[in-house]
Design brief:
three-stranded mixed β-sheet, mainly alpha, flat, 14 helices
């Protein structure tokens, strides 16, 4: 029994040993196979890398050879250009040497001819001296005396002929110039059409019924006083049916008053606070309309790069008049006339048009200096970087300064043409407006004055002062001093009433 057990154990041990041996051999064989596969893959990868390296080398070599070939071609071209330049230089040197030889030959020939001429000149001088001596003997006069007599005779004849020629040329030039100038001016006037309507100082505001007049006047006249104080326009409410008159020399103020009245009547709420609100809104509206008018005018005329302040001043021309002629219409007409005349004379039409439009810009300056409007306009144009030709044309159109370019007389002539049209101007209105302006400006020179309004056709001057700067006693003194100054410095018909208004307002808000 023990024997069988030993045999069994021995068999199991041998079997396990044999299995381990077989397993080791199998693993060894598999390892060898894997190693062989790895070696084969490595060899394949190595060959691929070598092949790629060879291809890269071939590509780099080809690129290098291509680059070298390109550089060789460029060097060859440069060498060819250099050779061509050397050949051209050599050719020029040959031409220069040949011309130098020809010039030397000509110089020698010229020197020879000059020697011959000098000899002949000497011979001629000798012969002339002999002839002069013989003539002096025959005439009994020296050569200088005969020369002087001959010169005097020729001078008199030449002077006489020159005077006749100058006279003929001058008369012909005058005739031609007059004809040409008349033709240019007539054609310019005919090609530029304009409408003229003389403005007055009264605007009529139409109403539906007379009941509205009482509402506009308000309790104890407070509404109408507020309107007059805020707009500076005299509101005349009389027996005229369905009409209210707005009187004032400043068209801008009259327009503000008219639109404000129209808004108030349409809205129905008419009281001092509402009047003040509407007037302020209307002032902003008119200011915007002024800017739009200026922009539209310069666009219509094809004028570019004009300063914004100048555009605004052009818009304000719509509400100004020059001797009764609307200033914007007059300036636009002068611009068109100037451009037409400049084109006829072959000058710069853009500069002429620009100068024509801006020539009366000094008439609407808000801060008026003691200067003619032409000089003031020139200073304004210089301030806003206008060209010297334009500035000179503005300043010289009334001969206050010397004209430096041909544009200046063109603007002056076109200004006269525009103003000389039948019914274009009315000087009485302009003088009246200037008097009212001077009244207001005179009051503004006093300290504490906020606003001034000339109303009642210049028979009354209302001065609004700041309550915090002027006392009641100062207001009385201001009225007296101003009346005395107006009486001393101005000439006017009748009398002028000076009213100083000092108003105190207390404002608070309930929140």
């Amino acid at each position: 029994m023990l024997f069988y057990a030993l045999v069994l154990l021995t068999g199991l041990g041998l079997g396990a040993l044999l299995a381990a041996t077989l397993l080791r051999k199998a693993l060894t064989k598999k390892s060898e196979l894997l190693l062989e596969e790895a070696k084969e893959k490595a060899e394949v990868i190595k060959k691929e890398k070598i092949l790629q390296a060879k291809e890269k080398f071939i590509q780099l070599k080809a690129d290098h050879e291509k680059m070298i070939a390109e550089k060789n071609r460029e060097m060859q071209k440069a060498e060819n250009r250099l050779q061509n330049k050397e050949q051209q230089f050599a050719q020029k040197m040959e031409d220069y040497q040949r011309k130098q030889k020809e010039l030397n030959a000509l110089r020698q020939n010229l020197n020879t001819q000059l020697d011959i001429l000098n000899k002949r000149q000497e011979e001629l001088d000798k012969a002339q001296d002999e002839q002069v001596k013989q003539l002096e003997k025959l005439s009994g006069l020296s050569a200088n005396e005969a020369k002087e007599q001959l010169i005097e005779l020729m001078k008199d004849e030449a002077t006489s002929e020159a005077m006749v020629l100058v006279k003929d040329i001058t008369e012909e030039a005058k005739l031609t110039a007059n004809m040409a100038a008349k033709k240019i001016i007539v054609e310019t006037i005919q090609r530029t059409a304009a409408e003229h309507a003389i403005e007055n100082t009264v605007t009529v505001f139409n109403i539906e019924n007379d009941e509205i007049k009482g509402r506009i006047i308000g309790r104890e006249g407070r509404n109408i006083r507020a309107l007059e104080a805020l707009t500076g326009v005299e509101i005349i409410i009389d027996d005229s049916p369905e009409a209210i008159l707005l009187s004032g020399f400043d068209p801008v103020r009259r327009e503000i008053a008219r639109i404000s009245l129209q808004k108030l009547v349409t809205d129905g709420r008419i009281h001092p606070a509402r009047i003040e609100e509407v007037v302020k809104k209307t002032e902003k509206q008119i200011e915007q309309e002024i800017i739009e008018t200026g922009k539209r005018t310069v666009i219509d005329l094809g004028i570019h790069n004009l300063h914004a302040e100048l555009v605004k001043m052009i818009g304000r021309m719509k509400y100004r008049s020059s001797y009764g002629q609307n200033l914007l219409q007059h300036s636009v007409e002068v611009a068109k006339l100037s451009a037409t005349m400049a084109s006829e004379l072959g000058l710069n039409t853009k500069i002429a048009k620009r100068a024509g439009l801006l020539h009366d810009i000094g008439k609407i300056a808000e801060n008026v200096e003691e200067l003619p409007h032409a000089i003031l306009g020139m200073k304004i144009a210089e301030k806003y970087k206008e060209k010297p030709d334009v500035c000179n044309a503005i300043g010289a159109h009334h001969d206050e300064i010397e004209m430096e370019t041909l544009i200046a007389p063109i603007v002056q002539v076109c200004d006269a043409i525009s103003g000389a049209r039948p019914g274009a101007r009315r000087e009485v209105v302009e003088a009246y407006i200037q008097r009212l302006k001077k009244l207001e400006e005179m009051a503004l020179t006093y300290p504490g004055v906020v606003k001034t309004y000339a109303i009642q056709a210049g028979r009354e001057l209302r001065v609004i002062v700041g309550a915090d700067k002027v006392t009641d006693a100062d207001a009385d003194r201001l009225a007296y001093d101003l009346s005395h100054k107006i009486q001393t410095e101005m000439t006017y018909p009748g009398q002028i009433k000076i009213t100083v208004i000092r108003e105190t307002r207390a404002v608070s808000y309930a929140k």
